[in-house]
Amino acid sequence: MVSVLTRRAHSALVPVLVLAVLGCEIERTREDATPTFEEVGPVLSQRCGACHSGDDAEAGYAVDRFLDAIACVPDGRAATLADAAGVVPLLAALDRDDHAGFITGDERALLRLWVAAGAPARVGFVHPAGVIDPRSADWHGALATRDGYRRMLDASLDDACGRCHAGAPAQPGGDGFQPLDGATDCRTCHSEPGGPLACGTCHGQGADPLPPRDNCYFPGGTVAGAHDVHLQSSGLFPAAISCGHCHPSLGAEVLSGRHGDGQVDVVLPDALEDWEPAAFDPETGACTGGCHGVATVSWTATASPEPCQGCHSSPPPEHPPRPCGDCHRGVADDGTALWPGAPHLDGRVDLGDGTGRCGTCHGDGADDGWPESGAHSAHRDPARGAPVACETCHVVPDTVDVRGHIDDTSAGAEIAFGGVATALGATPSYADGTCTGTACHARPGAALPNPRWDERLELDCGSCHATPPAPPHTTWNLCSARACHGGEVIVYPDGPDITAMGRDLHVDGTVNTGLP
Q1: pTM of the prediction?
Q2: pLDDT in tens, 449-494
Q3: Could you say which DSSP state residue 431 is in?
Q4: DSSP E strand boundaries for 324-475
Q5: Pairing with 497, which of 42, 373, 385, 469 sits 20 to 30 Å away (CA)?
Q6: What is 54-94 written as a DSSP string?
């Protein structure tokens, strides 16, 4: 039998909250003529079940169970409810020519009476007929939410769910609890981990905890929003963003505190350093700041933001004009894409391996932060002097992301002389790749007082000061005399030189002599 109706999987469509109560209802002799699914179900199964049953039901519509039979057709109309034009999809399908003869006149009349009565499941003494119909005012999910879920959570109450049904969140008697004979185990429908307290019970569908609930059973509910975008990893998200990032954490009982109070609470984390404070406007559904930088995004926008430019400019303002891949792992050099595994949206600016070591961005990529450009090597391990500390030419930051470290928009590193460069009253400067007036190179009589940064020079004593230096230095050439520089200097026929033991005392900002 071909039908336009569609079936939704029972477990995915109906996150009924607590009471799977069919077995709990004590059947009574009905004095009225209202049919229930107990009478209609066998008719539908016998006449329609050959095509409309099981997971592969024709047109996605099945009649195996009550909740399947009242599901929606492909266009979203409920199978057993009249639409705006007064058409009931189930009855309309059975009236079609391609379904002619499948049911008898009496059976058609029975179905019409059942639909007119609101398609009840069954009638019993314990619960009203609508107790398992999510669209009914008597639906057990709505009943369970009243009075702070007391029927679910307090087993001492006379009307507690757990006094009859196994699988309820709270049950009397502990391990010795015996459910009422015939009372359906809540886990028959609530089969997800957590049973009735699974996330998909109250929001989402079955195994899917994300809102919205199925519109077929909960019409007029919340819109989908951007939950999927946030909770699924993508090129922008290295991992799913947890629910607790935007909502209060669950209490020990799940339904406690601000969770389960009927309000959707959005509690965004405190602003991180250099991030705009995060804010959410419940009236407009707009998120600003935080993860999204300076952008404003709507909660109803279900697509991922445009890469990079969707949340911040690329590169950000006051960012060094260098290829992104020089400092950031897994980023295209032009800043237009992230590669799989790239750290992103983790609350910090990740540079290199994320350790914050100098070598992350310049140097050998590990602990050694010395770049190989220009005269770095000569300063790192000079032939005739002590190693030159980084702070001699640069401001060394306490942390990698401190302001002034990597926010310069000019090409090249910033020069800020200090230490031995400014010793002995020197006032050095740097321009166009040339150092001028440093205490290191520009002592009186220097042959190369203003070296260029990009020139690799072989320097000797006379390159930086006269040999011997100008007065008040003595004109003696007995540099290695004990009263002068002792074993730190050796004099060859062609002139003096620094010994291995003298390197640590040479170019250290102090004139060292053997005199007390």
Answers
A1: 0.60
A2: 999 998 888 888 889 888 888 788 888 777 877 778 878 888 888 8
A3: E
A4: 429-431, 434-436
A5: 373
A6: STT-GGG---SSHHHHT-B-TTS-BTTS--TTS--HHHHHH
